[in-house]
Specification:
Blueprint: E1 16-20, H1 25-28, H2 32-48, E2 54-57, E3 61-66, E4 69-79, E5 82-90, H3 114-118, H4 124-139
Antiparallel strand pairs: 1-5, 2-3, 3-4, 4-5
Length: 141
């Protein structure tokens, strides 16, 4: 399905924590770049709670990365100052599902998940709850 947002082809499925942001940038006094930075910072904060060093380099590589592996993808569109779409964090995602595409224009082997990185079973609901709290605090929503 073709959509109007940043980024290239991606996969959404079980084990992904998808966040859909509907934010009026004008009312918030912000811009898309700053919002994406804040969204990525929320994910990076969550990853740090698992002793993982996440990074984001807007303009170079989209999304959030752990070393050379991509753990979260972000794609936003803006219509009349309001954002659409959002970000997806691979928590317990079956990474084989990426093998039939080039996610965000990259080779599928670069994709990772929280569970793959910590090499332990992850409770999806706990991660969902914690990321929700971080987003609420950081974005004041």
């Amino acid at each position: 399905v073709k959509v109007e947002r940043g980024g290239s082809i991606t996969y959404h499925g079980p084990g992904q924590l998808v966040q859909y942001y509907i934010i009026n940038l004008k009312e918030r006094g912000t811009n898309v770049r700053d919002l994406i930075t804040k969204i990525h910072d929320c994910t990076i904060t969550l990853l740090s709670e698992f002793n993982l060093a996440g990074r984001s380099e807007l303009g170079k590589e989209t999304g959030v990365w752990i070393g050379s592996r991509k753990i979260a993808s972000t794609g936003l569109a803006v219509h009349e100052f309001t954002t659409l779409h959002g970000s997806a964090l691979n928590v317990t995602t079956d990474l084989k599902k990426f093998s039939r595409i080039n996610p965000c224009g990259f080779d599928s082997d670069i994709m990772t998940s929280l569970q793959a990185e910590v090499k332990n079973r992850i409770d999806f609901r706990s991660v969902k709850k914690r990321l929700s709290i971080i987003i609420s605090e950081r974005l004041s929503i």
